[in-house]
Design goal:
This protein is an all-alpha fold. The protein has one domain. The chain is built from 17 helices and two strands. A two-stranded antiparallel ribbon has the order 1-2. The protein is globular and about 75 Å long.
Length: 428
């Protein structure tokens, strides 16, 4: 490549490859548009499902997805990462909403964003490297188990709590849809369905809407409490008026600050881990600045909290779909946010036909992937130094809460590591 052939308006990396972000918009927009639409189709049922599992208004999940696309994408230094409500936060959000109520919980989301901006300013983005892998794996596995525990009742048309107390109230129609959804999601990769250019979660959402419309009889027809319910209004201003708003008196509550600290820690760890994984998937080998990402997430969480949305992180599923769909720049994430906004404003009636049981199936499969038996076996094979902190972290989180569980796991991990190092020195 000669000097004369280099366009002064285009950046090149060390290998001479053109940085897509410096290409003209007309060259990158077609691929970014396609990626953005595909990511939006994946994100829509996930945003709804995560809000459902968190015990929050379903619209709050969509608000978070919109903010992830329209706000975080502009501040972030990553061209491939997509942010939105995440499964990793379900346990902490559910616990805090149960304790505080949703409107009182929103100030905690705002404060968590402030804490993340401070962490990014202090360049704390590299601290995640000092977290033992066994504790991180235990955190994710515990979240997976909690998701499964909370969503299995919803598969059968029941509320998340008190499953065994309400078996007689199982709804036949919801149960059928939940079981069909599970079967399709589990078997997707083993059938010709995998050739269909649609995300399995979206396919299930659309398919179960069709199934529910064909049902008849009191035992089978889904009632309003078995379906998605997001606000509808004739005008955009009318819709905004129906959105949840923070109870600002909560800022004086110490429990809000503790909730914010927990959200900040878990969201930051999840974001940094997902950011690293996303960079590894990027075939253009671009690296995302972790401290700038923390600040971007902080800005996003502040906006989401003010608008009535759930807390956000960088999410690996949507990011990997973004990359595999051929995204060129961060514009693909922005486009995904635009399409989510359009869905809320233009198609709320269609969204409200989606059965909650199908969302529960999507989340149950997600939870199983986080807490798969294969993971437990792998940690066992890695030896006691890895397995004991892993199991302790899982048990402590499920028995108490995320923050306490992480602290207990870290203490056990460092004790085990120190003991192993001492044993090696003695043997040497």
């Amino acid at each position: 490549m000669t000097t004369e052939s280099v366009d002064q308006n285009i950046n090149y990396d060390a290998s001479g490859t053109v940085d897509p972000s410096s290409k003209p918009l007309k060259e990158t927009l077609p691929k970014d548009l396609l990626s953005g639409v595909v990511v939006a189709l994946v994100a829509l049922p996930l945003c709804l499902g995560i809000a459902q599992a968190s015990g929050a208004p379903l619209i709050s999940g969509l608000i978070a997805g919109i903010v992830g696309g329209l706000v975080i994408s502009w501040v972030s230094g990553s061209h491939t990462s997509v942010s939105g409500p995440a499964a990793a936060l379900i346990a902490v959000v559910y616990a805090q909403i149960t304790q505080l109520g949703f409107e009182a919980f929103l100030p905690a989301v705002i404060l968590a964003g402030v804490f993340q901006i401070i962490l990014g300013t202090l360049k704390a983005g590299d601290l995640v490297r000092y977290f033992p892998n066994s504790v991180i794996k235990g955190l994710l596995a515990a979240i997976g188990l909690i998701i499964i525990i909370k969503q299995v009742p919803v598969l059968f048309g029941l509320k998340p709590d008190g499953f065994f107390d309400n078996l007689s109230q199982m709804h036949s129609g919801a149960s059928l849809i939940g079981l069909i959804s599970l079967a399709v999601l589990w078997g997707w990769g083993f059938t010709p369905l995998k050739r269909i250019p649609l995300p399995p979660a979206l396919f299930v959402a659309i398919g179960t809407v069709g199934i529910s419309s064909l049902m008849s009889g009191d035992a089978w027809i889904l009632q309003k409490n078995h379906l998605v319910n997001i606000p509808m209004a004739e005008t955009f201003s009318g819709l905004v008026a129906k959105l949840p708003s923070p109870d600002y008196s909560g800022f004086s509550n110490i429990n809000i600050w503790l909730a914010a600290l927990t959200i900040c820690i878990v969201a930051s760890i999840s974001t940094l881990l997902n950011l690293e994984a996303t960079d590894d998937l990027d075939h253009k080998n671009r690296k995302s600045p972790p401290n700038r990402e923390l600040m971007a997430q902080g800005v996003g969480n502040m906006v989401s909290g003010f608008c009535g949305g759930l807390p956000l992180t960088s999410v690996i599923i949507r990011s990997s779909v973004n990359i595999s769909s051929g995204c060129e720049t961060r514009n693909s994430s922005v486009i995904h946010g635009i399409f989510l906004l359009m869905a809320v404003v233009i198609f709320p009636m269609a969204i409200n036909q989606i059965p909650l049981a199908c969302l529960a199936a999507i989340l149950t499969v997600t939870g199983f992937k986080l807490a798969s038996p294969k993971l437990f076996l792998t940690m066992w094979r890695n030896g006691m130094v890895s397995f004991v902190p892993f199991v302790v972290t899982v048990s402590a989180i499920v028995a108490t809460d995320l923050l306490k569980g992480i602290i207990v796991g870290l203490i056990v991990a460092y004790v085990m590591i120190k003991q192993a190092a001492k044993t090696e020195q003695t043997e040497a």
